[in-house]
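User: Can you predict the 3D structure for this chain?
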Amino acid sequence: MSNRKRRISLALIVLFVLAFAQSLCAQAASVASAPTPANDTSARLAKLEQQAADAKSSADNAWMLTSSALVLMMTGPGLALFYGGLVRKKNVLGTMMQSFALMAIVTVLWALCSFSFSFSSGTGFIGGFHHLFLHAVGAAPDPDYAATIPLQTFMVYQLMFAIITPGLIAGAFAERMKFSAMVVFMIIWSFIVYDPMAHMVWGKGGLLNAALGGRFPTLDFAGGTVVHITSGVSALVCALYLGKRLGYPKEPMPPHSVVLSFIGACLLWVGWFGFNAGSALAAGSLATSAFVATHFAAASAAIGWAAAEWIRNGKPSVLGGISGAVAGLVAITPAAGFVDPMSALLIGLIAGVFCYWMVATVKARFGYDDSLDAFGVHGAGGTLGAILTGVFASSTVNPIFKDAAGNTLPSGLIQGNAHQLLNQLVGVAIAWGLAIVGTLLILKLVDLTIGLRVSDEEEIQGLDLSQHGEEGYYWEASA
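Assistant: Here is the predicted structure, written as structure tokens:
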């Protein structure tokens, strides 16, 4: 073999050996970098856990957005129709406009500052300025309020409560307050009464916050004190301050359309599932429990009111039936996430009879003109429900329930205790006091500046024409 051929053969052998060695190194590196079976399992478990957390967050967020829409539906069209049907024909548009206007006005206030005053850290009585103009309110959750949904979702859900609460007050001064006075009154009332009460019961560091270590932990699942006592007691103050409608009680003032009120009450019943079950802030078993309690209480209260009316008057009225259902929904609101179904039935039954007595007997005895019984249903029903929550709350339903030492009670240990009942009474007293004092101050301020009540001529003409220049029943004019 020539020297040239030998050199070529040797070169080929060297190239082959180098290629083979490079292949072996690559395989070795691949083996070395491949994860061990233990690492692979950990990575897969972490990925599955993240996917499960993302799925739960999406489900909870979907439920909370749905609940937000349900609660907004309670104001418009629910409350607008319910109250609109109870007034006389000449005031139907003016009454509905009050609910609609609050949907717009309170939304703007909430975005600018009220959410911050209610739910950012501050004192035991009022929140701070951290969330002014919705600063830092975005996609990230706040674990103190709801760990699985964006803080922005929590914000918009709580907005719907802030909208309907002042709207409930309008039932007491229906047919006689100026629209301009109503707007100014509601704006100031939201700042002075609603925002502090919401912070005390639900906000970080709130005096009455049961979940975050308040000094007097008051159990209020969905707003018995925050929504119904404040609005109902404020309604009574408004009715007393403004005085009676012209002709009341000698002149008959029946509802112009119980049909509209019937539709509104049914919408309120449906929307209340978002109000109460949504307050679980997650799509879990607690939401189911609150949903069931809400429905059962409304049903038994409707029966209780209708039965009491049947016994007294010889006939159960449609208006009585729907008023009873609303009374039951009011009373179960603070208790919905703390009581079992049988307790909910009992709370509803008691509320139906009690609120009927407040409307049919107490109101007549004292002679105040609470036009649409806002106090008799919401003030009285909210107070009753807040107190009965301390009697029937069960750690089987919700482990937030604590003993006198602040320790969480074992499931099923007891239902209610004296210490918690005392805390409930403290919460009720604060809600009553804040509503009375705050409302009186606001009414006096508005009365001294722009005046509260329409003139006698405007009241006789009706709010539709005198305040808005429109009529709700054009077909009658042309008939």
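The radius of gyration is 30 Å. Confidence is low (pLDDT under 50) at residues 410-415, 475-479.
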